[in-house]
Write a structure and sequence with these properties.
With 390 residues, the protein is an alpha+beta fold. Helix content is 41%, strand content 21%. The mean pLDDT is 96. It binds alpha-D-galactopyranose (GLA).
């Protein structure tokens, strides 16, 4: 994170609001290495933070006014939005402002005395790309207000508040992974997170040292979680847990999966969802074990199995994501999978450093040949979680 970027965001704040901000904060987007659609089933996930961040310049106010501005909306044509903290109410806002306002609402609902703020936001996390641009916006605002109002909340507690903002205020039934990743990840590590109790383990993940790379391929197919399909999958998983008499699918033991599927009888839809979630939890634990054993290359096939499960059982892939995976594997990738909520967004590709160029070219050509919009390909190295910049 460059000092220049923080200074530029502070400068824009001064132009907009006529005073210095009290501080500048950053919160990253993420990719998920493995553990998809497990977080609302109390399961395991393993995201890491991207170098792309949402940056916020913020000052407190004591008059109940919340002023919001984003550098990223309509080339700034959106202007400053002025709200009153007392008027904030769930599901009344369909714009980007719902994310920062939702955080203020959630903090106040939790009893924290937040009496207003001036906020200017600028993000480099691509929106709608499955890289948690909304979580980055939420977490950066939560962290700034936590510091300024001295609320004393830890990263995981802020993540919970941000999830509540998104579930209740925005109205998107997401899990806890993205907010926790943005708040708690550490540079050079992937975060092994148990979403049941939010216990965490930072797993060293330095691919370059071993001659490998991780590519993110943004298919540019936009998705949104407030639309129905994500919620349908979640409801299906909850139905599965209820039918099996467990609190969450996390409670189905790996070696009891076959028996559990049998008990679900001919409800094929629920059987497929359950099979994905239980095997995906197992894949996360497998990846952790392999990384701890120093067998990094061996995680490749596990990632690829994860993709097949999301495509065939969970049914949330799309032709563009499948094309990335198939083309990358044909080009020699060690493993590849879609990442994030699905129905578009991004895929990740694990590859030998020497193969990166060939694979990138092959994916770009395959997209061209299929008549898809050109994908955006970049290399991802685990970056730092949310922090104060100045
Ligand atoms: C989205 C949600 C997360 C998680 C993933 C799928 O990113 O925000 O909570 O459910 O999808 O793993």
């Amino acid at each position: 994170m460059s000092v220049e970027r923080a200074a530029a965001v502070a400068e824009r704040f001064r132009e907009l609001y006529g005073a210095e901000p009290e501080g500048v904060w950053a919160a990253p987007g993420r990719v998920n290495l493995i553990g998809e659609h497990t977080d609302y089933n109390d399961g395991f996930v393993m995201p890491f933070a991207l170098p792309h961040t949402a940056v916020a310049a913020v000052s407190r106010r004591d008059d109940g006014v919340l002023r919001l501005h984003s550098a990223d909306i309509d080339g700034e044509a959106g202007g400053v939005v002025e709200l009153r903290v007392d008027d904030l109410a769930p599901e009344t806002d369909r714009n980007w402002t719902a994310y920062p306002s939702g955080v203020v609402w959630a903090l106040r609902q939790a009893g924290h005395q937040v009496t207003g703020a001036d906020i200017h936001l600028a993000s480099t996390v691509p929106a709608g790309a499955g890289l948690s641009s909304s979580a980055a916006l939420e977490v950066v605002v939560a962290l700034a207000l936590n510091d300024l109002y001295e609320l004393g909340q830890k990263g995981w507690q802020l993540a919970r508040l941000c999830q509540r903002a998104e579930n209740v205020y925005v109205g998107a039934p997401v899990g806890i992974m993205d907010q926790t990743a943005s708040a708690c990840c550490e540079a050079g590590h992937a975060l092994f997170l148990d979403t049941r109790d939010l216990s965490q383990q930072q797993i060293p993940f330095d691919l370059a040292a071993e001659g490998m790379r991780l590519l993110v391929v943004d298919t540019q197919v936009k998705h949104s979680h407030s639309e129905g399909e994500y919620g349908k999958r979640r409801a299906g998983c909850e139905k599965g847990a209820a039918l099996l008499g467990v609190d969450a699918l996390r409670d189905v033991a790996y070696d009891e999966l076959d028996a559990a599927l049998e008990r679900l009888g001919d409800d094929e839809e629920v059987r497929r969802l359950v099979r994905h979630v239980v095997t995906e939890d197992q894949r996360v634990e497998r990846v952790v074990a392999l990384l701890e054993a120093g067998e990094t290359r061996a995680i490749g096939p596990v990632l690829t199995q994860g993709h097949a499960s999301l495509r065939d059982d969970f049914r949330i892939s799309c032709p563009e994501l499948d094309l990335v995976v198939d083309t990358a594997l044909a080009g020699g990738a060690l493993g590849a999978r879609m990442t994030g909520g699905g129905f578009g967004g991004s895929a990740i590709v694990l590859a030998e450093a020497a193969d990166v160029e060939t694979i990138t070219k092959a994916v770009e050509e395959a997209f061209g040949a299929a008549g898809f919009i050109a994908p955006r390909v970049f290399e991802a190295v685990p970056a730092a979680g949310a922090r104060r910049l100045s």
